[in-house]
Design goal:
- Pfam families: HTH_IclR (PF09339), IclR_C (PF01614).
- This is IclR-ED domain-containing protein.
- The chain folds into two domains: about 1-55, Orthogonal Bundle (Arc Repressor Mutant, subunit A), CATH 1.10.10; about 70-235, GAF domain (Beta-Lactamase, 2-Layer Sandwich).
- The protein has eleven helices and seven strands.
- It has helices spanning about 1-10, 15-25, 30-40, 60-65, 70-85, 130-135, 140-150, 155-170, 205-210, 215-235, 240-255; strands at about 45, 50-55, 90-95, 100-105, 170-175, 180-190, 195-205.
- The strands form two sheets. The protein has a five-stranded antiparallel β-sheet. The protein has a two-stranded antiparallel sheet with strand order 1-2.
- Helix 5 runs antiparallel to helix 10 and helix 7 (about 140-150) crosses helix 11 (about 240-255).
């Protein structure tokens, strides 16, 4: 049954019973039983023409609930490839209200100087991943965040400057606020609706990272794009970031 779900995740169009049975080399009777179970469980939907299409893969509801299970599954091998290519620490993070939650890290084989605690939740404007997500958002979203997160005038100015610089480069380049001598590159990942909800970050010693900035930034951009493509293809998106934007609007209205 998992093979069937994974197969649906690799195709872009709906499939009929005969297509499924042929692709998975199984009797139509067995395929039909599995299809019915997957429809009943909400993983597939059946069209009026008798075809079946993917609704979501296992882990989607963990994203809705904040667990981000499917995102971590999809992103981990891509993050590992980016770490191998860049030679720096890789970090996956996602929006969590006004904060950015660090979900997963992959460490390089060479000297490690950046080993962040997974589960940490700095404010969006305090982390390169959060700034990358705001950079990829509409100006109105940034304005709502500034008001809802109650940033000071200085913090708001710094955020806008960081976003402006990042938009010119296509990625966020930032010195670490936690570890001296460490810098990072971060790029946003869009969800199935195109809204930025996660980010890939590569971090390492400032001198080494800057000297290899093209290689590191290319690895981060490529990894974020690949994760975004998988998220869209498999319909693994989250309304959490859209809910966060709505919460920022409500919070701002309450305090006016």
């Amino acid at each position: 049954m998992l093979d069937m779900l994974e197969w649906f995740g690799t195709i872009s169009d709906a499939a009929h019973l005969s297509d499924v049975a042929r692709a998975l080399n199984m009797p139509k009777s067995s395929a039909l039983l599995m299809l019915r179970v997957l429809v009943d469980r909400g993983y597939l939907q059946k069209g009026g023409d008798g075809s079946y299409s993917l609704v979501h893969l296992p882990g989607y509801h963990s994203i809705q609930a904040g667990g981000h299970g499917a995102l971590k599954v999809f992103a981990t091998p891509i993050l590992e490839e980016a770490v191998h290519s860049a030679g720096e620490t890789g970090i996956l993070a996602a929006v969590d209200g006004h904060n950015i939650r660090l979900l997963r890290k992959c460490l390089p084989r060479q000297q490690i100087v950046c080993d962040p605690a997974i589960g940490a939740t700095p404010r969006l404007d305090e982390d390169a991943c959060g700034i990358a997500i705001l950079m990829a958002s509409e100006p109105s979203v940034i304005a709502r965040y500034i008001e809802a997160a109650r940033l000071t005038a200085r913090e708001a100015h710094a955020l806008k400057a960081s976003v402006s610089d990042a938009r010119k480069d296509g990625y966020v380049l930032q010195n670490s606020r936690e570890i001296d001598g460490v810098a990072c590159v971060a790029v946003a990942v869009p969800n199935a609706t195109g809204t930025p909800f996660a980010a890939i970050k590569l971090a390492g010693p400032t001198g080494r990272l800057v000297a290899n900035l093209d290689r590191v930034s290319d690895a981060a951009i490529h990894a974020a794009a690949r994760v975004g493509e998988l998220v869209a293809r498999c319909r693994v998106g989250s309304s959490r970031e859209d809910d966060a934007h709505a919460a920022w609007r409500a919070d701002a209205r309450t305090r006016r």
